[in-house]
Structures are given as structure tokens and as C-alpha cells.
Design brief:
Radius of gyration: 23 Å
Helix content: 25-40%
Number of domains: 2
Shape: globular
């Protein structure tokens, strides 16, 4: 089995992509999705967030939600709003956000290689979120939410993707947030074969975002394999929908921390304790860290620049040397008493896309403190995955986001 393979994608019919493309299912609340989809009967949110078509307050994991998704999906197929390519293809997919551009490949990735960790993970998953994606896939008999993957340095693949994305696109959509999504269909046999061979030569791919979607695809494949006495390995359920970008083009933004109280200390006491492991200097301007080991701290009305003491950075531990780990292990846990950031309600998180003004707003509105971080680097993510380790929660915030509905993978 190949690491990736082309597939007959289900795509918006010509000129319909702008009506269909939607934000990923997991970045909007039901209320936000309902507003986004208002007056847009073909928005993919009717498939990815079908609770918007049911009474407000409906449990998003209720059986009727998945049934509604299947009904909406079937209606889009019947009306010809979505159409399937006649033969297996790859697809070049470009994202442009402001001055940032990245060009990747839409492909079906091997579940077997995911199961054996050639497609590498760096996060734990939650069973309830996996269950939700399994039910969605089974209801639609399709994978509609792509897994965001990265491939390591491969200049020849970069050049190939640039070449195939040089002509007129098959879909070109600028979303409400200003991000441009452009798609080119790759049909010629020579290009398909070369792409497959180039990826087969890679030692690994890396999950950037979509751990629950990939885990759900693995579970669906295992169930269908067990139920199929004629299983041969070539069935579509043995692969999952992915978009694979060169790691050096991907953009990780900072993932910042907000704290509800100072663990019984006043600001002066807290700053004194923070000075045990960090140098602390007041700043007359908001602090956006410019290098690893540097942090911003905002207390009501005042920013500080923190630098961790060099001797506290382990050189040989890919998880412990992450900035999110350094802050957690040397300040948030021992000083603020928040030892389980996955479950402790005293900590919250804000993606860097919201900016430092969001941190000021939240602290001035009642939170006790905010920390701005230097963004995790792709090389750090890959090192953690290569070591078979897991990153702390809320370590990466990828932008721009993929759109749902541009290409889906049918399970025949």
C-alpha cells in the first residue's frame, strides 16, 4: 500500500465553490455556525454542523444530528451542487492569508501508515470527540473534514506542486475572513505516478491538526475491515482525507494563556515568585516574544517581559524544552498551582490570531494575568512526534485554516 494515493474527490460543481466552502466544523460554535450559514442553503456547515438545522439547544452528538447531516449531504448530491470526479485525482490546494502563502496536496493517506506511526501524532485524543467523528463518517459514508498533514523537506515535491498550480484553477474562493482557497485538479497519469512515488520515498508525514479525524478514520477502517470477509486492502476506507503541506511553509501562531487568579498572591508577591525562575522586566508596550524562552506577562494595566533562566532549558528533551512546557513547569504549576491544564478551570487559552489586545481585554475584564508565548516551531513539533512523545495541550494554533467542502473523500 502506498503512503498516499489519488482518489475520485467529491467537489463543488463548477462556479458553486463560493456557496459551499465553510470554516472547519470545530472552530465555530453552533450559534456562530447558524449565523454564518443564514441565507446560504448550500453552505457546507449544513453538513459539518447540522445541528444548526435543528432546534436551538439540540445535543450536537444526538442521533438526529447525524441523520440531518446525511439528509443534507444527500440533497446536495441529488441537486448536483456537489459532483464527483470520474477518475482518481490529486489536487493542489493553495491557502493565502495576507502576505502568507502555502501550497499543498489533497490526497488520500494510508490508515495502515497512521496505525504504524509512519503518519506521526503529537497529541492525545478524547474518546468522545473520536466517537463524534466516527458517527459523522458512518452517517455520510464519506470523510468531509480533511486532516492537516506536513511533509519534511522535499524540494522536488515543492517544485512539482508549484508547476501544477500554475494554470487556471478549478476553484477559487475568498472566505469571509479574507483567506483565499484555490484548488487545481491533477489528472495526468505521469504527475499522479510521480507524486505517489515521491511521497512513498518519505520516511514520515506529520499530523499538524486533525488528530480526532485521523483516529476516527482508523476506527472506521478497522470496523469495516472486520465486517468485510472480502477485505483486500484497496478499499477506500483504508485511506483518509488529508491536505499535506511542506513543513517549512506552514504557519504556527502563538497559543497564549490566561489565568483567573494568582493563587492567593497579590501582584507584587507573584512577580517576586516569578523572578525565581525568570528574569522579569516591566515593559512600556505589549510584549510579543521574539525568540524561544521569552514570554510576555500582562497584569492589569502593565506588561512585563520574562526570560527563563538558561539553566532550566533541557537540551535533550523535545517536550520539556518547548516554551509551553517551560512556562507550565516553572511558573504555572509550581507558582500558580495549576498542575493539570487540560482540566483546571483556572486556566484558559487564546489563539494568537486574536492578537495581544485580546489578552489585555480579558485581563482588564476580570482575568488575573495573561501570558504571551513565542510560537511553537514545526521543527519542534516534528521532533516530539519522532520521539513518540505528546505535546502539552494547546501548543499549536495553525493559520490559515482549511475550508470544509472543497474536496471530500467518499467511502464506497
Amino acid at each position: 500500500m502506498s503512503l498516499i494515493r489519488p482518489f475520485a474527490g467529491l467537489r463543488p460543481a463548477p462556479s458553486r465553490a463560493a456557496e459551499i466552502a465553510a470554516p472547519p466544523y470545530d472552530v465555530l460554535s453552533a450559534e456562530e455556525a447558524r449565523v454564518r450559514a443564514a441565507g446560504k442553503p448550500w453552505s457546507f456547515l449544513h453538513i459539518s454542523k447540522p445541528e444548526i438545522d435543528l432546534p436551538a439547544g439540540t445535543d450536537p452528538c444526538a442521533p438526529e444530528v447525524y441523520a440531518k447531516a446525511a439528509g443534507n449531504f444527500g440533497r446536495m448530491l441529488a441537486e448536483g451542487v456537489l459532483a464527483r470526479d470520474a477518475a482518481p485525482c490529486y489536487y493542489a490546494y493553495r491557502l493565502v492569508m495576507g502576505g502568507h502563502s502555502q501550497t499543498g496536496l489533497v490526497a488520500a493517506a494510508s490508515v495502515a501508515d497512521y496505525d504504524t506511526n509512519r503518519i506521526r501524532k503529537h497529541e492525545f485524543t478524547r474518546p468522545d470527540k473520536e466517537d463524534d467523528r466516527v458517527r459523522q463518517i458512518d452517517a455520510l459514508h464519506a470523510q468531509t473534514g480533511p486532516v492537516l498533514l506536513a511533509y519534511p523537506a522535499a524540494p522536488q515535491v515543492d517544485a512539482l506542486l508549484e508547476r501544477v498550480s500554475g494554470g487556471a484553477p478549478d476553484a477559487d474562493v475568498t472566505a469571509d475572513d479574507g483567506v483565499r482557497h484555490t484548488l487545481w485538479v491533477i489528472r495526468d497519469g505521469a504527475s499522479l505516478d510521480r507524486i505517489t512515488a515521491e511521497f512513498d520515498a518519505m520516511r514520515a508525514l506529520y499530523i499538524a491538526d486533525g488528530h480526532h479525524r485521523s483516529a476516527a478514520a482508523s476506527r472506521v477502517a478497522a470496523a469495516r475491515r472486520a465486517a468485510n470477509p472480502a477485505h483486500g486492502g484497496d478499499e477506500s476506507y483504508n485511506y483518509f482525507l488529508s491536505v499535506i503541506f511542506p513543513h517549512h511553509q506552514m504557519k504556527i501562531m502563538d497559543y497564549n494563556r490566561l489565568i483567573s487568579d494568582l493563587n492567593g498572591m497579590d501582584a507584587e508577591q507573584f512577580l517576586r515568585r516569578a523572578g525565581e525562575n525568570f528574569s522579569v522586566r516591566a515593559s512600556g508596550a505589549p510584549v510579543k516574544p521574539g525568540r524561544p524562552g521569552e514570554f510576555g506577562l500582562y497584569l492589569p494595566g502593565q506588561w512585563y517581559r520574562l526570560q527563563i533562566r538558561a539553566g532550566l532549558i533541557p537540551a535533550d528533551d523535545p517536550v520539556a524544552r518547548l516554551d509551553v512546557s517551560l512556562l507550565q513547569n516553572h511558573l504555572i504549576a509550581p507558582i500558580l498551582g495549576i498542575r493539570d491544564p487540560r482540566r483546571d478551570k483556572r486556566i484558559d487559552f487564546a489563539g494568537g490570531i486574536r492578537g495581544l489586545a485580546e489578552l489585555e481585554k480579558r485581563v482588564n475584564g476580570g482575568m488575573a494575568a495573561a501570558f504571551s508565548l513565542f510560537a511553537t516551531r514545526m521543527e519542534d513539533l516534528m521532533a516530539v512526534a519522532d520521539a513518540g512523545e505528546v505535546m502539552p495541550p494547546k501548543s499549536t494554533w495553525f493559520e490559515p485554516k482549511l475550508a470544509d467542502g472543497m474536496v471530500s473523500h467518499m467511502l464506497d
